[in-house]
Amino acid sequence: MTDIPLRKMASRQKGVIVRVDAQGELGRRIRDMGLVPGTTVEVQGRAPLKDPVAVRIRDCTLTLRNNEADQILIQLEDKWNE
Amino acid sequence: MNEHLIAIAGNPNSGKTTLFNALTGARQRVANYPGVTVERKEGSCKANGREVRLVDLPGTYSLTAYSLEELVARNVLLTENPRVVVNIVDASNLERNLYLTVQLFELGIPVVIALNMVDVANGRGIEIDAAELSRKLGAPVVETVARSGNGKDALLAAAVELADKNAAWTPLRISYGPDIDPVLDEMERKILAERFLTGLHPARWTALKYLESDEDVIKKGKEANPDLSSGLEKMADGVAAHLQKTFSAYPEAIIADHRYGFVAALLKSGVVKRKHGADRIYLSDRIDRVLTHRFLGPVIMGFVLYALYYFTFTYSEIPIGWLEDGFAALSGLMESWLPPGHLRSLVTKGIIDGVGGVLGFVPLIVFMFLGIALLEDSGYLARAAFMLDRVFRLFGLHGNSFMAYIVGGGIAGGCAVPAVMATRTLRSSRERLATILTVPFMNCGAKLPVYALLVGAFFSENEARMMLLLTLISWSMAFLAAKLLRSTILKGPSTPFLLELPPYRLPTLRGILIHTWERAWLYIRKAGTILLAVSILFWALMNFPELPESEKAAFDAKREAIVAHLPEDLRAVALEGELPGENLPEEMTEVRGKLLAVDQAQAQAALKGSVAGRMGTALEYVTRFCGFDWRTNVALVGGFAAKEMVVSVLGTAYSMGEVDPEEDASLRELLAKDSAWNPLVALSLILFTMLYVPCVVSVVCLAREAGSWKWGLFSAVFGTSVAFIVAVLVYQGGQLLGIGV
């Protein structure tokens, strides 16, 4: 499969969320911020210390830490087009 | 019924507060929600000849009650029964904003949608068919631009019109898919049959909350009807187990997906038109590429902070001068009005010097707040939190702690009280406690006058640089203390960091002025109330008990001796201290000087004999290790009431030792000249002031927020111990090395 966790995405790489593994509070928070399956995500950049990561979704920019990004599974766009 | 209660709801950064300000103007007040310390903004305005009361709900992304803000927003809607909710929606970020809208519809409350920032959306090539959106949602949609106030009257009119109808709540029914819908329907039937919580919220909504395992609703349900409640919980568990097996997903996740699905379907059907592809890079992103750049970002951040200082200290100097002159004039006026004695002393030395000495720094605080409001409203502060989260985590804190630190005085000039309240965005009690306990190390507005005084007197060549250094020290101390706390008494894992970076916006002048004014007013009010009382208390402590009559007589005898050789008619004038300052014969100048010295000696003796003086003297045994004499000790004791008091008590202490009203030396110059002072003592005192026990108000607030007086006491002891250790190390170390002595 071509699914990779959001943490592994490179800057400017784009993909679609296929699964959010987080549950409970973190899961709820992730969804409330709009990170749900089917959403297109583009990594915009990382903080100077490589963490947290900034992503663009639905016309806005969100930030999350790498260990949170681990819980979000992405299908990369280029593979998706194949 | 001629008053409507209308609630304003919306996501953070959707322009909610701007619109609220535009609608209510000066007719607003800020308080706290009862029981919790979430800010409650209320205002009123007139529309259709009616009085409308507006409540600005805390900004939320959802009504799932994840945070205290969400819970509060939800409870206002459920318990205060506003007629209408005005839902502010950011048109340039419609999809995410409508998630909250859907939840409002599910609740059933009548909604008017303010499609805000249509100008920004249009600029991005996004066109929204408001009429179509209104038709699809079955609710009025009004286009607004909060920054300019465009559309606010139409919005208000639409809200009032809907409120006038006084329609019943009609909850929106969304399909959540074949796994959830049947169970939801059954739960709804059971709830309706037993009228379970139906006075509070719609039946289907209650069922939904059981499926979402909403703690707050389930708790209320258990109290209302334990049997039915556990029955509903069992049904929810059944669905959860089934979904877990088939999709490995939780009901709340499926519900959220369907809500987003509903929004997406809505927008796809001709509501939104995009001129450009989604790949377009917005100006905001371009700016971010520079401002949050790996190397440039931190450099720019440092530069921004330095610029803030430079701006604050350079430009506040002039109005500070005006205020100082004004208070000096007022003091002079009072001296000429009031007869000599205790009343005159109380008014001039106690009240005007005490309160005026602090209010004199208001321009500095205003300028600092102005700078922070600019950073905050432009969206830069969120970037700073983003860049710094990794560092914060290193010390067991959270990127959001940054906000609390900033409000507390992270760029100098805040207040620990709102900062402690700002920690409420932190979910983990350990991170929150660690932040609460270390926020008082920040350089709050009340410490600035102390720094300004001492830095001005001893480090005047490097004022801006020195202030930056003090900021760095206060951050380091807060970090080290936080690390210490998080690895000892507050051990535990960290909480998620999910934050929106709002697009950069040019702040509105009005918004910045309101922000600045709110904070400056908090400072002034504190100076006007607590400080007035404390100034009077301290004046009393410093004036009583008076010198015994025998000592007074001895000083009088000395004066008599000095003037003995003068002609009879000049003696009285000399003793009254009314010799003119200029064109005196040399002989008289000498007499004047001698008299002054006696007066100062007497004032010194009087202060030292007073209650405050005795306290200060007793503390010298300990504080001499930091280089403080009894006068500094008196000032520091006063600083427990409010840190500003360190300056005003020092002022009182020194102005009592300096009697000649013609000699208008400011406290700054006085200290610079005094032999008991040198840069090392000043630095030691600055650091002690930075770290020791927070002011009374902060301790009270901190104890309340932390949930126990134990923490209030802990904070006082902890801070003072740290302060003492640091001051002793600096003073003793400096003396050993011979620096600044």
UniProtKB/TrEMBL annotation, chain B:
Mg(2+) 2 binds at residues 21, 24-25. GTP 4 binds at residues 116-119. Its main location: membrane. GTP 2 binds at residues 35-39. GO terms for molecular function: ferrous iron transmembrane transporter activity; GTP binding; metal ion binding. It is a multi-pass membrane protein. Belongs to the TRAFAC class TrmE-Era-EngA-EngB-Septin-like GTPase superfamily. FeoB GTPase (TC 9.A.8) family. Probable transporter of a GTP-driven Fe(2+) uptake system. This is Ferrous iron transport protein B. It comes from Desulforhabdus amnigena. The gene is feoB.
